[in-house]
Amino acid sequence: MMRSTPVVRTGLSRPAQFVARFVPALALALVLALVSAPRARAQSDEEAGFAGYLQLLSARARAEGVRESTIAGVTGSLSFSPRVIQLDRSQPGGGPSTGFSPFAPYRRTHVDAARIAGGRRQYLANADLLARIEQRYGVPGKIVLAIWGHESNYGSYTGDFDLARSLATLAYEGRRRELFADEFVALLKMIDRGVPRSKLVGSWAGAFGNPQFLPSVYLRVAQDADGDGLADIWSSTPDTLASIANYFRDAGWRPGQPWGVAVDVPATLDRASLGTSLASPRCPQVFARHSAWRTMREWRALGVTPQGASLADDVQATLIEPDGQGRTGYLLTGNYRVILDYNCSNFYALSVGLLADEIAR
């Protein structure tokens, strides 16, 4: 026997029941529309503003000699990237340090067994090439390989963001407008020079290839070491290594001088007397951790002794104790500051130097 469905008596007419049933859904849809409308307008305004800004970048590129076909081919399909802005704004701030941060944890993850082994394999596989590069540029092969290892883990990951979109977005945002506007125009010049558009992918911040150069750096120092007509820092090992070496030569690397040495520092050292009054206009917090310059002879007289290989008596060096007093310190030469030119971070530069020494050990 079938049961009939019970009838619920609401006291409402059929039209009234219809309204009662659908008004909540209509109200919800109206609320959602009201909430999403400002967002949609903001997105629309942002895209319109971005498109207008691209016209300014195009005019700048045109004035610097970039071909019209290149400009149109790149800017015609560009859109604003909210993801790039999100990544940029999530970076640590550049304000004063809130406390002491030791080097040891960073060293463990950047001068690790896998990176050392990878560098040694590259050192053996490219021994003749590295010897030629060192002879031409004056930069040790172990330093060149350490940079490659740090920047892209010997080419295993170089980024997959569209560089033109990233650079244009970062320029439009305005936090570092001049920097990224310059880099966007430099990217267009790379295309004018014959770099395929398909190769121009990299990090969200605009760096690319095995050595993670910015476009302006590529234009200045990239090398065509294999002679195929393109400075291919994406897939050519000779071009990659020669380009890194040329960067270091351009930055002032002194042939035959180490980056620095590990030292034992006596507890009795009067560190207050070793402060420097020099203020660096670039990365002042990085250089503030360095002592005043002294010759190696003067450091020995103060009881600072190398743990292994030493420096010549007349070499000028500055002291850093990245893990605090009582731990290993480092005497740093002018070549250390060339590494800082690549990436202005003491932890980065120290780990490059230490990785280089491990690769060649």
Which strands sit side by side, in order, in the main sheet? Answer: 4-6-7-3-5
* Rg result: 29 Å
Distance between the termini: 91 Å
* Number of helical regions: 15
Which residue ranges are poorly predicted, with pLDDT under 50 across at least 5 consecutive positions? 1-10
> Helix/strand/pairing class, anyone?
alpha+beta
Mean pLDDT: 89
> How large is the share of residues in beta strands?
5-15%
Quick one: biggest sheet? 5 strands, antiparallel
Helix content: 40-55%
What's this model, at a glance?
By secondary structure, the protein is of the alpha+beta class. Among the domains are: about 40-80 and about 160-205, no CATH class; about 260-330, no CATH class.
Task: Walk me through what this model shows.
- The structure is a single chain.
- The protein is 53% helix and 6% strand.
- The chain has helices at 14-63, 68-75, 82-89, 104-110, 113-125, 127-137, 141-152, 163-173, 177-192, 215-221, 237-250, 284-287, 296-301, 334-342, 346-360, and strands at residues 161-162, 201-202, 260-264, 294-295, 305-306, 316-320, 329-332.
- The protein has a 5-stranded antiparallel β-sheet. Strands 1-2 form a two-stranded antiparallel ribbon.
- A hairpin with an 8-residue loop joins strand 6 and strand 7 (329-332).
- Helix 3 (82-89) packs across helix 8 (163-173) and helix 6 runs parallel beside helix 11.
- The N and C termini lie far apart (91 Å).
